[in-house]
Design a protein that fits this description.
alpha+beta; four-stranded antiparallel beta sheet; 10 strands
Length: 250
């Protein structure tokens, strides 16, 4: 895999830029609100809410913002009523894309997504058209400077480890079943191993590597979708060469 990046690696490289976007807190607040609405306001009994709170704290969201979002989800405070809608489609080079949204205006959301897709040479598909290519998993990034592969496997084998991807130059990507994500985090904490980006993810069964020009177009489409106000997450089976990735910054 030297000289190439899978989607998990691409997301890490984009993270520094994404965190500077003004809509990051909005996305985090919506996730907390929806998690509290669907599973209750107690993070001890609501794994999705606990993960959303941990992510918000990792991104320096103030405590009062987190508590306000929880109360909006449980109905203790008034707020917008969000529904979750997932869209599926294809991008340049035939890559598969899943777009998760949280919206209080379905018509606005689909219009924004269609505009981004049409402008960047993609196409929307029917429900189920690409989701069969992905599996929802728990995902954690562990820096290679913190631990050896053998030691990391030993720590996680009893915590639900399914796959340990070492293709990235700087990170191990830990894959577990969604229900085992919290156990894996606790195992890492107890072993004193630092980690980043613990989240629920959509992992593709196979990756597609378009040519350099198409790969750049695909990345521009993904960026446009992520910039839509109501989009919470974008997943893809894109694999891209380092040369194409670097050209985005030129």
């Amino acid at each position: 895999m030297s000289g190439h990046s899978k989607w998990s690696t691409i997301k890490r490289k984009k993270a520094a830029t994404d965190q500077k976007r003004g809509n990051l807190f909005t996305k985090l607040v919506r996730e907390i609100t929806i998690a509290a609405k669907t599973g209750g306001g107690d993070p001890g009994g609501n794994p999705r809410l606990r993960l959303a709170i941990d992510t918000a704290k990792a991104n320096s969201m103030p405590h009062e913002n987190i508590q306000r979002a929880i109360k909006k989800g449980t109905g203790e405070l008034e707020g917008a009523v969000y529904e979750e809608i997932t869209y599926e489609g294809y991008g340049p080079g035939g890559i598969a894309i899943i777009i998760e949204t949280a919206t209080d205006n379905r018509n606005r959301t689909v219009a924004d997504i269609r505009h981004a897709i049409n402008r960047h040479n993609g196409s929307l598909g029917e429900n189920g058209s690409v989701s069969w290519m992905f599996q929802r998993k728990g995902s954690i990034d562990v820096t290679k400077a913190a631990v050896s592969e053998e030691a990391l496997m030993e720590v996680l084998l009893d915590a639900g480890l399914e796959e340990l991807d070492s293709d990235d130059e700087n990170y191990f990507n830990v894959i577990v079943d969604v229900k085992d994500l919290e156990a894996a985090k606790q195992a890492l904490d107890q072993a004193g191993i630092a980690y980043d980006n613990a989240k629920m993810d959509m992992i593709p069964d196979n990756f597609v590597e378009p040519g350099p020009d198409e790969a750049v177009k695909a990345m521009k489409l993904i960026d446009a979708l992520e910039n839509c106000d109501d989009v919470q997450a974008v997943y893809s089976n894109l694999e891209i060469s380092e040369q194409a990735m670097n050209s985005l910054d030129s």
